[in-house]
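Retro notes
What went well: the complex prediction finally ran end to end.
Inputs used:
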Amino acid sequence: MKEIVVISGKGGTGKTSITGCFAALAENAILADCDVDAADLHMLLAPEVTKKTDFISGNEAIIREDDCTGCGICMEKCKFNAIEITAEGKYRVDPFGCEGCMVCVEVCPVKAIDFPPNHCGEWYYSHTRFGPMVHARLGIAQENSGKLVSTVRREAAAKAEELKKDLIIVDGPPGIGCPVIASITGASLLVVVTEPTISGKHDMKRVLELAKHFSVPALVIVNKWDINPGMTAEIEKETLLGDAYPIGRIPYDRAFTAAQINGRTLVEETTGTAVENITTIWEQVCRKLK
Amino acid sequence: MIIAVASGKGGTGKTTVAVALSLAGSEPVIYADCDVEEPNGSIFLRPEVACTEKVLVEVPKIDEEKCTSCGKCARFCQFNALVSLGTPPLVFPELCHSCGGCEIVCPAGAISWKKVPVGEITLGKSDGGRISVIQGKLDVGSSLAPPVIRQVKSYIADDALTVIDCPPGTSCPVIESLGDADYVLLVTEPTPFGLHDLKLAVETVRVLGLPFSVVINRFDEGDSGVEDYCLEESIHVTARIPHRREMAEAYSKGGNLFDAIPEMRALFEGIPRIIERGVEEK
């Protein structure tokens, strides 16, 4: 079984639009959305959710005000400044600051702090017109996005095994931090979607370094390449220097927005150069996987 | 006053707006780049760098002479950063949140701390010294952005106007960046993805209880979904930036909003004052 992860470093380069096209072009694939923080792939693929599972991860400290003696040891020991004093001189945990480390629970001399499991979001198993899909939603202002990403990937792999699918296509998150690392470690191939801007180039270089760090091979697509052809050429050169391969260019095309508005992938929406380019790129990606 | 510029979706124009806000006025301003995974503000502000410093976090160091291999530290650690199999624990520094718990529970006093780098802060000046640029950058391969963001924010002075360029999304790095903000500008684009992620961002700032308004980038493209939503929810739209090919071209070369659309300057110059008045009234 192979797993392709589409990432970008910089947001808004067209990751999800291109992942949607790959989903439409692939045969026998499982689809997964690992951008659990701001998931958008479902807007193109219209999944019908068949199974919904709560995502419980980590714990959250809660001080029982009635039992709190106001000694302040918890506040002193909390490294995240997550404990505040209430108007009544008692202490309270700020749920947005709490990282669930349990230090306050341990140091409280009267054991006045509860530590219940944290409901961080949910994940879904769904059907789409292009095959099964695993996706998720992280709760607002929640931690543990990396663990939710790992859950989505694990469930997608289990489904692929069960249904004898040989390919998983993953829409990844932006950036290079915890959820991205959780998305790419151990993957077969990364497809990096960038754009011909200084920011796009800067962010792509960091993603390629990350790919190298975790020893995952990477291919690079320059989307909207005709906005700055000179920068496109520079990016392709950087790609080679970063031990990755430029695998194609896609022109700026307003049909991407039109397709999004219609809830379709570009390859279903229209024909033309962009669609031809994406189709060729997909064939090359498949060849690289073999 | 601290104005944070955020968005659910990446690539909507957060940095463009944050840079424009910093450039528009004539008063001193601090530009703090908290998008530490992919900091881009310096591409457009081109600061003269004054100094750089490492962001260090503390991770446990085990004194194997003192360690009795009891395993309490590993059982306590909520992040699986310590693993003990009847031996002195193995430390996985990249999982450590530096909470100090292992040291507290160790009965043998075998745990001390060592500092490891996770990122870098760059301090510089732009626009003839008027704009102080603070940039945080997460080291490639490090997973924890919040310590780098915290250090960026430690340089923010209370008296100056501060513009925070936030990371995308709605999870811990965004929450860390929005803490202490007086006001949030949510940048979006008029597309279904833009609207979907704007709703998540609105939920986030509402949960945090922060006053906010919306900036619609490329407002004349796409559909009317974002405008309709803002109207329904009585969310104020502070600025609408037109879609121009010149803007895309200027951006691609490191140019700013006013290089492409000079007439936007007056509006951005006024935004901090409009916000300040609104915040004071509340």
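What we learned: Chain A has a mean pLDDT of 95.
What to try next: split runs per interface for comparison.
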